[in-house]
Predict the structure.
Amino acid sequence: MQALYFKRYGQHPAIRAFVEGITAAAIGAFSGAVVVLATCSLVDVPTLVLAAGLSVVFKMWRIKG
């Protein structure tokens, strides 16, 4: 049933613009939340080192996978 609506209205310029706007808003909200949580939780050297190490591991894992 939903695919029928997608096929019918999915290429409509106003719908596409709305979806792109919602996507941008969600990315902005998540990015803001990450910044706030990071500044509250990354307060000492061991935590910073752990976060940097985990980001490197996840980056390598994404490249290999």
Q: What stands out?
A: The chain has one domain: 2-64. The chain has a mean pLDDT of 88.
